[in-house]
Amino acid sequence: MINKYPLWKYLLILTVLAFGVIYAMPNLYPDDPAVQLTSQRSSVQVGEAEFSKVAKALDAAGIEHFGEEITSNTAVIRFRSDEDQLKAKTIIQETLGENYVVALNLAPTTPQWLVDLGAGPMKLGLDLRGGVHFLMEVDMKAAISQRNEVYASEIKTLLRTERIRYRRLTTKDGSISIRFNDAELRDQAKPLLRKEFADFMQTERDNAEGFFLELALSETAVRNIEDYAVKQNLTTLRNRVNELGVSEPLVQRQGRNRIVIELPGVQDTAAAKRVLGATANLEFRLEASSDTNTLDSEEHVFRNNPDRTAVLEKDIIITGNSVSNALSAFDENGQPQVNIDLDTQGGKLINRATRNNIRRRMAVLFVEHKMKTRIVEVAGEKVEQRTPYVEKHIISLATIQSALGNSFRITGLDSPAESSELALLLRAGSLAAPIYFVEERTIGPSLGKENIELGITSVQIGMALVVVFMLVYYRMFGLFANLALTANLVLLAALMSMMSATLTLPGIAGIVLTLGMAVDANVLIFSRIKEEIQNGMSPPMAIHSGFERAFITIFDANLTTLLVAVILFAVGTGPVKGFAVTLSLGILTSMFTAIMVTRALVNIAYGGRQLKKLSI
């Protein structure tokens, strides 16, 4: 019988619509402004004592807060407004001090039963929801200093290999000073160093202490090192953002030594801040022997036992820069560890060092460049003051039993969370130079609210105009088209939420365009039905013919548009991708609703009936 669907098609349509309603519902529950607290180290938890201090400080300031949650190592406090959220952040940072990360966040309000079904709201872009804006500055002096330390270690190795004796080698203020016992040894070293280290300018200096050769990097070399530091840090930060799984982030260079990072709708901004700002690196060093010169060694404490120390050689075998992959795992005793793979050069260096030092102990030194944050009063205003500092702690100190290769493991970590974070940082790549937060702020929460309201208004106006036109022009069939159009919006919201697609202002434009395209398919079908009736065909046959014959035209039109949307997504960036995503999904949902849902409604209303006229 024509104009009748089999039962399975009706059940399929009902199932899809029910699915759409459930997974679109979380978008009806707006997030609460919140502040998230976490410690500087992932292994340290935020306890009841810290949370109680924060609550008292907020109460004393008259800031209303609610919905407090404490998990394994973080606490989240909710607020009624964005203004309270911003005020609270300063108060909390001042209360807890520099050992805790205080970050702005948005806490979800989705009911638990929807969360249990895997439903969640769609992500909103920076122009709608706002997000976190970080301005970070690369420490150029530290970049030069770190590079000089590497050069100093290579120069020591070269002089020892060539059997040129020197008394002392020191680095200071971007230069390297080598002290010799006599001028003849210095003259032997000069051409060798000029050949192997052409980036240095050489000057001689003699005094009562000995014969010195001063090496200073040329201006061109300094600029190259600085430029490399910024580019490497840019790449590393992009990798870290990718590891965090942020949709449509912005990571770009600004000026000579700064990097801008914008993270729209980040759920865990405290963790993002800790991971992005962490300049953690590893250094592999041998334990100093009894005949090691005290000037060539230094003492360090253990990370998990401050009362235990060890004296290590200053010479670095390899650093985290040589790590090609790192994965968190557990050893045979169930303790956390990090499995490390080195690149070819790193493997050669570690193999040579361990092969020649069997029975000696090698340390893994964890180096962190941190920032102390404290609230100070300047000109009557409270501002954050940041002071950089460096922490070096020994993770492990193990006896070398045999020569190591490209793969080995690091133990001695405090917790699985710490091993996961260390693996993430090493996998994403180490920073070429320390980097510090210069500015942190949210991007236009009020502007985002206004954009959302304007975007919703545009969708409402567009839909209202379409609904009125369809009802006036196509009457009952217009009602069917409007119901299908509503289903289309619900399904589109559900798909975007499930795929974690980011909705931006251009994305809203894509939704508005989708409304027109969805109705356009119905217009083609209804026009074909009217044409068949005018040609003398019976209403039931006209309905059947209208849907069947219009399908190819609708399919071709939507397919070409879909291809354009895919190309836009492939070659576009940021807002263009947002537009392409909503347009692509809208095409798929409109094909389903305009053809199947509308046909189902028409079949229910007119199927199996002897009709003389249609309300079209």
Automatic annotation (TrEMBL):
Partners and quaternary state?
A: Forms a complex with SecF. Part of the essential Sec protein translocation apparatus which comprises SecA, SecYEG and auxiliary proteins SecDF-YajC and YidC.
Q: Please state every residue range assigned to the domain named SecD export protein N-terminal TM.
A: 2-104
User: Where found?
Assistant: Cell membrane
Residue spans crossing the bilayer:
454-473, 480-501, 507-529, 550-572, 578-602
Q: Which GO terms describe its biological process?
A: intracellular protein transmembrane transport; protein targeting; protein transport by the Sec complex
Q: Which keywords does this Swiss-Prot/TrEMBL entry list?
A: Cell membrane, Membrane, Protein transport, Translocation, Transmembrane, Transmembrane helix, Transport
Which segments constitute the Protein translocase subunit SecDF P1 domain?
A: 230-287
Query: SecDF P1 head subdomain domain location, by residue?
Result: 305-433
Q: What does this protein do?
A: Part of the Sec protein translocase complex. Interacts with the SecYEG preprotein conducting channel. SecDF uses the proton motive force (PMF) to complete protein translocation after the ATP-dependent function of SecA.
Q: Which GO terms describe its cellular component?
A: plasma membrane
Q: Where is the Protein export membrane protein SecD/SecF C-terminal domain?
A: 438-602
What SUPFAM superfamilies does the record tag this protein with?
Multidrug efflux transporter AcrB transmembrane domain
Q: How does it sit in the membrane?
A: Multi-pass membrane protein
Q: Which family does it belong to?
A: Belongs to the SecD/SecF family. SecD subfamily.
Q: What is this protein called?
A: Protein translocase subunit SecD
**Family annotation (Pfam families):** Sec_GG, SecD-TM1, SecD_1st, SecD_SecF_C, SecDF_P1_head
Query: At the top level of its lineage, which domain of life is listed?
Result: Bacteria
Q: Which Gene Ontology molecular function entries are recorded, alphabetically?
A: protein-transporting ATPase activity
Xref: InterPro entries: Acrflvin-R, SecD, SecD-TM, SecD/SecF_arch_bac, SecD/SecF_CS, SecD_1st, SecD_SecF_C, SecD_SecF_C_bact
